Amino acid sequence: MAIERRDFLNGAAIAITGISVAARAAARGADGAPANPPALEGLRGSAPGSFTVAHGVRDGKVYDLDSVPVAEAYDLIIVGGGISGLSAAYFHRQLFPQDTILILDNHDDFGGHARRNEFDVDGKTILGYGGTQSIDSPRTRYSAVASNLLRDLGIEIDKFATAYDQGFYDRHGLGSATFFKKEVYGVDRLVPGIRRRGGTVGDPDAQAAPDAQSDAATRAMIDQFPMSDRAKALITELETSTRDPLAGKTVKEKRAILDHISYEQYIRQYWGATDEVVAYYQQRLEGLWAVSIDALSASQSFGSVPGSRGLKLGREHDEEPYIYHFPDGNASIARMLVRRLVPGSAPGNTMEDILFARFDYAALDRPGAPVRLRLQSTAVKARNAGAHTEVGYVRDGKLVRARARNTVLACYNMMIPYILDGVPAAQAAALRMNVKAPLVYVNVAQRNWRAWAKLGIDNIRNPAGLFSSMMLDFPVSLGNYHFARTPDDPIVAHLMFVPISPGRGLDMRAQFRAGHARIYAMSFGDFERGIRDEMTRILGPGGFDFDRDVAGITVNRWPHGYAYTADPLWDDPAVQAERVRVARLPVGGVTIANSDAGWDAYTNVAIDEAHRAIGEIAAMRRGVAATNAG
Predict the structure, then answer these.
(1) In 300-370, where do the E strands start and end?
(2) What is d(CA 374, CA 377) in angstroms, rounded to the nearest whole number?
């Protein structure tokens, strides 16, 4: 059945694919509320309607809490049902097991950016990650607090060594490739590349480790690019040369230079890069930084782009293999937290059975439960009220006033000055500087991946495309969940779009703001047309047929995605350190969590900031002044 046909459910366009109408209907209850939100397709992430109330507050709408009575009381209210908010509830229950907790979230699903996507492909359930991708370097980056939380939930990271089939793509003869679009390069051409994942599988956004063999393969690959000889020679030099363009300077002097020029400036000034070369690398930083190469320092760019091989800057730490991945990404962590916080919400107790655990969303907000998770509820006001705190939230168009001894704001930190009364001016200014990065993760459920196999590719760079990268999912089998075994099996292809703004002289925050507007302006149809066009042009020569092979599409739209991470090109380190300290200070009985509070877009940071926020509450209750030292 052609995917152009639409079914409009509650105003959201959902593509009709080979998945049955009954299967889609099962994702919603009789009243139209989502019964199983992960199974919903179409435009998800910050789905239509989830941000309307918050945008009203941003634009000046005022909600008067005194106009409504206190409707409910708890010991703790948490605004934000992502991993940080859920972790805050978990830590609070450890310290104060008798306390009652209300968790509010504006979306119809919990987990924040740790979003699960489910597809029913001809009777088989396959999973995808709609946001937070993996547990990144748990042995070296995770604090004792974050590591203990994973362990307490039953996550045994050693199991990923076998769950993640590290030789899968090598066994199937697959590698990377680059696609050149004819609108820019004069011809549609798919150029096979050197292996990026390798036998031990690495981060697909990382620059491959160089050696003589890979250098030879790189030269052969670049020779096939539909680019000028001059551009190909420059790219080859960038990718393979061991020349030190800053020879004679100390590492400290080199870093000082590289901190204060963009990567584009670096390759233009020190490598002679032309506009053609710059355009080829323009999207390369999107996966990790969500910006173009003129908006990130050269020092922060290395690792994703070439040109640092001869600098000998040293590495901060050895990277762990990028294998710590659930089939639905870190949504499994959020689901395990909710299962622990709300008994009876889902069956099971292991990292294996969480993958097929069906959640009873009606059980998340049961009267009298010690922890209640209330979705589709947008906080619009928070304040201190004597010995208590109060939160106003809008649900079903109505303002509700709730009271608690303490409140944790684990929401987007940039919204805090709009909703929290009494924030000092310096703190409000610091919070507003945490501008989140926009990005879109698209999951395309395919009935098979024969075209990928025939072409010999598993991940594609698309330097002139709408989607800068396209890849087959990570090969993880865990418990009763089995990844595709042969090209005839269903699989998820993951596409990424980031709305960068190169060549406009915009700093990182300005690029993010421009990207917010662009993402909100794009419809599901806009994305679908781009998916159809680019997948057909890239995979069509391998026999791919969009209407026949695509079983479902979920567009995970995150206008406010990654937490802002400081870059020395735009942020003085001393100023930034003080900004971080001030931004997350408690305001009366209200504390602040979220990965935003750690100014870094990683799950371990979200957990650590939750632990700090609850520690501050514990200190308040002991009568000790809380600090931001943690």
Answers:
(1) none
(2) 6
Residue 505 to residue 509: CA distance in whole angstroms: 12
pLDDT recorded at residue 217: 87
Q: Which are the contacts of 313, defined by CB distance < 8 A and separation ≥ 6?
A: 251, 254, 255, 299, 302
Phi-psi region of 423 (alpha: psi -120 to 50; beta: other; left: phi over 0): beta
If DSSP codes are grouped into helix, strand and coil, which group holds residue 346? coil
Q: What percent of the residues of the chain are helix, what percent strand, and what percent coil, each to the nearest 5?
A: 35, 20, 45
- Closest listed residue to residue 497, CA positions, set 534, 472, 550: 534
Q: With bands split at pLDDT 50, 70 and 90, how would you rate the model's confidence at 194?
A: confident
* Lookup result for tokens 């969009």: 546
How far apart are alpha carbons 243 and 314 in whole angstroms? 16
**At 413, is the secondary structure helix, strand, or coil?**
helix
* CB of 240 closer than 8 Å to CB of 215: yes
Name which of 491, 213, 153, 191 is nearest 339 in CA terms. Answer: 153
Cα distances from 297 to residues 203, 212, 257, 267, in angstroms, run 21, 28, 10, 11
Task: Enumerate domains of the chain plus CATH numbers.
Answer: 65-112+326-432+572-621 (3.50.50.60), 209-318 (no CATH)
Strands, E assignment, 134-197: 175-180, 189-192
SS3 state of residue 7: strand
Q: How far apart are the C-alpha atoms of 105 and 103, rounded to whole Å?
A: 7
Q: For the residues of 188-234, what is the DSSP string, one character each?
A: -EEEE---SS-TT---TTSPPPP-HHHHHHHHHHHTTSSS-HHHHHH
Q: What is the largest CA-CA distance in the chain?
A: 73
Question: CB–CB of 231/277 below 8 Å?
Answer: yes
Mean pLDDT score, 380-399 = 97
Among candidate residues 6, 13, 79, the one with its CA nearest the CA of residue 48: 13
Residues 417-430 pLDDT 10s: 999 999 999 999 99
Burial 286-311 (b: 16+ CB within 10 A, else e): bbbbbbbbbbbbbbbbbebbbbbbeb
pLDDT tens across 402-457, in order?
Answer: 999 999 999 999 999 999 999 999 999 999 999 999 999 999 999 999 999 999 99
3-state class (DSSP) for residue 17: coil
Phi, psi of 254, deg, nearest 5: -60, -45
- For the record, the structure tokens of 601 come out as 């877009």
The whole-chain average pLDDT of the chain stands at 92
Does this model's pTM top 0.85?
A: yes
- Taking alpha carbons only, the member of 482, 446, 483, 453 closest to residue 172 is 453
